[in-house]
Automatic annotation (TrEMBL):
Keywords: Cell inner membrane, Cell membrane, Iron, Membrane, Metal-binding, Monooxygenase, Oxidoreductase, Transmembrane, Transmembrane helix. It comes from the Bacteria. GO terms for molecular function: metal ion binding; monooxygenase activity. It is a multi-pass membrane protein. The lineage of its organism: Bacteria, Pseudomonadati, Pseudomonadota, Alphaproteobacteria, Rhodobacterales. GO terms for cellular component: plasma membrane. This is Alkane 1-monooxygenase. Pfam families: FA_desaturase. It is found in: Cell inner membrane. Signal peptide: none annotated. The chain crosses the membrane at residues 12-32, 38-55, 76-96, 108-125.
Length: 377
């Protein structure tokens, strides 16, 4: 256990700032074009996979009672990311259409990399911020999500995913044997609807209609429209097209991670629409050091669902007795997810072993595989 005073040191927090090192890669791609536009995806997927293999695992846990004041350097990187991303994204939307040295495919390649940043880092940081009670942090989360036209993710994640993870009501829990290419369009179709209905249901319980001004969807639509208008002002329809393209890439990155985090893991149905409480065993855990630095401990997902209000530096990791372990970090696992036969070969035996270990009493898994159990009450 790492003590609170040790956790508070700047030297402990600095590795989590490596996301800022991706920004110069985008600028290099914009300045030089050619093969340099591929630096961002190559770095985030392949370089971090190699560094993970060399750096090994980090199984140390910080003292979960560490106070907010001692987490300043960790919180700061999440607070400054929104303005950094805004300047990078809209600066490039203005610059790229005017850059004579960048051809069409180079522009596409560059904004593919930008989408990797806004998805891998931006949405991930928004995820950390949306879980906080501080109004500034929640607004920053909304700004980051609006830049990728996925604002409803906040409502879906907080009101649906965390409450119903591992049950048929959660669209984001990937079903056993469901390939990513089936999962992705299903999630895009279902998540917006589930988020909107969750917010409408909250308002209805207070005697208010869905169109009440308290519905955050009004804010979501206003922010997204504002960013779309800004792209049009900066570079016309080409600017808007670049903004939309990077958003598609970002959402694809997010849902790849969502797919990996809960694939095949379901909560036991206790009968009558009741399900067991969420436990660390209901999310895949990973300890790869470098990727956890880049993704601010997102791979410690088992603890995040068990204790959603913990800030990222205090998330705990678990061993195999308490949570299922991914064989590799997220960069490798998300690449494997894009090839369903490879994914099934790697993960299906692990899901079956998880079922045998934690739920030997369940002999009929077909309702769990097809999300056909009764909806939770």
């Amino acid at each position: 256990m790492i003590g609170s005073n040790e956790v508070a040191k700047l030297s402990r927090a600095l590795p989590f700032w490596m996301s800022l090192g991706l920004v110069p890669l985008a600028l290099i791609g914009a300045a030089y074009g050619g093969w340099t536009v591929l630096l961002l995806p190559v770095c985030t997927w392949y370089l971090f996979s190699i560094v993970d293999a060399l750096a090994g695992l980090n199984k140390e846990n910080a003292d979960p009672q560490t106070g907010e004041a001692q987490l300043f350097w960790y919180r700061l990187v999440t607070l400054i990311w929104a303005p950094v991303q805004f300047l990078l994204l809209f600066g490039l939307i203005w610059y790229v259409p005017r850059a004579a040295h960048l051809g069409g495919w180079e522009s596409v390649g560059l904004f593919f990399g930008v989408g990797v940043i806004t998805g891998t880092i931006g949405i991930n940081y928004s995820h950390e911020l949306m879980h906080q009670r501080n109004r500034v942090e929640r607004w920053l989360a909304d700004l980051l999500l609006a830049m990728v036209f996925y604002s409803h993710f906040r409502s879906e994640h907080l009101l649906v995913h965390h409450r119903y993870v591992g049950t048929p009501r959660d669209p984001v829990t990937a079903r056993y044997n469901e390939g990513f290419h089936r999962f992705f369009p299903r999630v895009l179709r279902q998540c917006w609807s589930s988020a909107f209905h969750a917010e409408a249901a909250m308002l209805a319980r207070k005697g208010r209609p869905w169109w009440d001004r308290k519905n955050p969807f009004w804010r979501y639509w206003a922010l997204q429209s504002g960013f779309a208008a800004l792209a049009l002002i900066l570079s016309g329809w080409e600017g808007l097209a670049l903004l939309v393209f990077q958003a598609l890439v970002a959402v694809w990155q997010l849902e790849l991670v969502n797919y990996v985090e809960h694939y095949g893991l379901t909560r036991k149905h206790l009968g009558g629409g009741k399900y067991e409480h969420v436990l660390p065993r209901h999310s895949w855990n990973a300890c790869q050091k470098a990727t956890n630095w880049l993704l601010i401990n997102l791979q410690r997902h088992s603890d995040h669902h068990y204790k959603p209000d913990r800030r990222f530096p205090l998330l705990q990791t678990y061993d195999e007795d308490e949570a299922p372990q991914l064989p590799f970090g997220y960069p490798v696992m998300t690449m494997a997810a894009m090839v369903p036969p490879v994914w099934r070969r790697v993960m299906n035996p692990r899901v079956r072993a998880w079922r045998k270990r934690y739920y030997p009493e369940i002999t009929e898994w077909r309702p769990y595989n097809k999300a056909a159990n009764p909806l939770p009450r």
